[in-house]
Write a structure and sequence with these properties.
disordered C terminus, Immunoglobulin-like, 338 residues, four-stranded antiparallel beta sheet, mainly beta, disordered N terminus, single chain, elongated, six-stranded antiparallel beta sheet
């Protein structure tokens, strides 16, 4: 290869981007992304209230004969994943489909790093200048766990005007926020594909509004053996500060919480010993996508005490449905509360 490669290392059953290596081909040059891409335009692809909902990027390009065989990397900060069904995007001559003008490998940062990349190579047989555009859909990284990286992204990203800057190529979008604050007595979720064979599932759990909270949660992930959870990757936290999409900006470790995870039954037991007013517990779990489609119902059983009196015992079911795609491609989860 002739580009900066984000190497995958398998750790605890999940894939992590472990290191960055630079490989240079003896005869190829490394050029700047802006030598090829000349402008960027980004448009929302729907009315989803979560900022990471689909956005379409249009990159105009100008490929000259002198660039033949050259390599470049486009770094895209704050991009969680590039939502293409292909690991490599190929641009061909519209008059001769056998002539490749540009190939770009997609590298997704996901929950591992706070950027994604296009690692591109200009075609070898370029004898004239070509102009055109490259289009793809992506999602923003807006947080969703107690990891340092996602807490930082939750703080950075907020609803309203946002300037995208990819190696000097800029575009402006307006990120929509959530219409209303999630109810204190129910589960709020944010679920999406990591593109590394798992779903990242964030759940903001119930608590007592205006009073101290203690109690228990039992969450059973009913996706079958092929779609079990990774207990080693579960993170839990407590927060009183959330961003525009109610993703945590902090993990208050002074609050007394504890959890256990039973991999054999895909069940998490989460206990709140004492939670001060204004704080809410949350957890993030990675659920494997080892089959081409997933239809699972995750069951939440809540038993809380508010102040000195029993508040409620509640059961909620969240159904997750994924369209049928291989586990290394884009999935579209649908969370339904019943």
């Amino acid at each position: 290869m002739t580009w900066n490669s984000l190497t995958l290392l398998k750790v605890l059953g999940l894939y992590y981007l472990a290191s960055i290596h630079l490989f240079l081909h003896a005869t190829a040059a490394t050029i700047a992304a802006t030598d090829v891409f000349t402008s960027l335009s980004v448009q929302s692809q729907g009315t989803a209230l979560i900022a990471s909902g689909a956005y379409q990027a249009t990159l105009t390009f100008d490929i000259k004969p002198s660039m033949a065989g050259d390599n470049f990397i486009l770094t895209m900060p704050d991009v969680y994943s590039i939502n293409t069904d292909l690991k490599t995007i190929t641009v061909t001559n519209p008059d001769d489909s056998s002539q490749v003008l540009l190939t770009c490998d997609t590298i997704d940062g996901a929950y591992i790093v706070n950027f994604s990349e296009l690692q591109c190579t200009v075609g070898d047989n370029i004898s004239t200048e070509y102009t055109g555009s490259l289009n793809f859909v992506f999602t923003f990284s807006v947080g969703g766990s107690a990891s340092d990286l996602e807490l930082e992204q939750a703080i950075k990203m907020t609803a309203g005007p946002f300037e995208i800057n990819w190696d000097g190529l800029t575009s402006n979008v307006t990120l929509p926020g959530v219409d209303s604050e999630p109810s204190y007595d129910s589960v709020y979720s944010y679920i999406h594909s990591t593109k590394y064979g798992t779903l990242e599932e964030y759940y903001l759990l119930p608590s007592c509004e205006g009073e101290s909270t203690n109690g228990d949660f039992t969450i059973t992930f009913n996706g079958g053996a092929a779609n079990s959870i990774d207990c080693d990757s579960v993170t839990v936290g407590v927060a009183g500060i959330f961003n525009s999409w109610y993703l945590p900006e902090e993990n208050n470790e002074n609050e007394a919480v504890g959890f256990t995870c039973d991999a054999s039954t895909s069940t998490i037991y989460y206990t709140i010993y004492i939670l001060d007013p204004g704080y809410r517990p949350y957890l993030t779990v990675f659920q494997y996508l080892e089959s081409s489609s997933v239809a699972s119902t995750n069951k939440f059983v809540t038993s809380l005490t508010c102040g000195s009196s029993v508040a409620f015992t509640n059961t909620e079911n969240y159904q997750i449905v994924l369209e049928s795609l291989p586990n290394d491609e884009t999935a579209s989860p649908l969370a339904v509360s019943t």
